[in-house]
Specification:
single chain; Ubiquitin-like (UB roll); binds FE2/S2 (inorganic) cluster
């Protein structure tokens, strides 16, 4: 193999003194995960463009004054990144504490990523006042909308706009009043939503859930292939007893984790 066939060279950097490498274009978050190091993150998800809006993933980079979001920064050769420092962990815990106030009283789904990171970093309470919670929207037969659990990470928005190219979901208002809306702030059932459920799959907390069996805990996950048409989308059935609680997309050659309304809710 010639040098040209070997592909771009990996980029060496360190994380807490440990030598790692990043593939060209890979973020600190992704490179660390590939090496088995988990950095807290909420608005970042595989398959979605980075948004950098939750700041749960901040790390310190030697020589830089401010903390940097690991989901948006790509390592430079020789970069020295710090995760396990009091300053970094304090900043991450503050973000999770603010989000605890944001979602006070909300029901989180069993596999909530927010709950996972709060537990991982020992965030058990919040010093901040709860926000005024938006009312639930139960208009849709397939998708339950409970924006009291929303952290405005915009994963649903990016899944709807960038992945499925439906562009139903947007962010309305400003500052503390910012909220997810469907079309022109319509009830979900009255919007142009096609119920693909990509937003449900992307949601890290449970603000968007399947309408039925939303917060039940699955006993097992059964991989399968969608029986509806000939595309061959791969999926996972989340099952309790003999009952399918919900369906999520699995990475397969035909669907790369995506499903349509029939596969997810049919
Ligand atoms: Fe990096 Fe949200 S995961 S800013």
């Amino acid at each position: 193999m010639s040098a040209d066939d070997a592909g771009p060279a990996p980029i060496p950097f360190t994380l807490d003194g440990r030598a790692l490498d990043a593939r060209p274009g890979e973020t600190i978050l992704s490179a660390a995960a590939r090496h088995g190091i988990a950095i807290p993150h909420l608005c970042a998800a595989d398959g979605l463009a980075p948004a950098g809006n939750c700041r749960a993933c901040v790390v310190a980079i030697d020589g830089e004054r401010t903390l940097a979001p690991a989901c948006c920064r790509t390592p430079a050769a020789g970069m020295q990144v710090q995760l396990e420092t009091e300053r970094v962990r304090k900043a991450q815990r503050l973000v999770l504490e603010l989000l605890a106030a944001e979602t006070a009283g909300a029901v989180q789904k069993p596999d909530s990523e927010l709950t996972h990171w709060q537990q991982a970093l020992g965030v058990t309470s919040t010093r901040f006042a709860a926000r005024m919670q938006p009312p639930a929207d139960a208009s849709h037969p397939a998708i339950r909308v409970a924006l009291d659990a929303c952290i405005q990470c915009t994963r649903c928005l990016r899944a709807c706009r960038d992945v499925q190219v439906n562009d139903v979901i947007g962010l309305a208002a400003r500052g503390h009043d910012t909220r997810i809306v469907f079309d022109l702030d319509d009830p979900l059932a009255a919007s142009s939503c096609v119920a693909c459920g990509e937003c449900v799959q992307a949601c890290p907390t449970g603000a968007l859930l399947p309408a039925r069996e939303a917060v039940s805990v699955a006993e097992r996950v059964v991989p399968s292939v969608c029986p509806y048409c000939g595309v061959g989308c791969q999926l996972d059935y989340h099952v309790a007893g003999q009952r399918i609680l919900r369906v999520s997309g699995r990475d397969g050659p035909a669907n790369h984790g995506r499903l349509c309304v029939k596969g997810r809710f049919g």
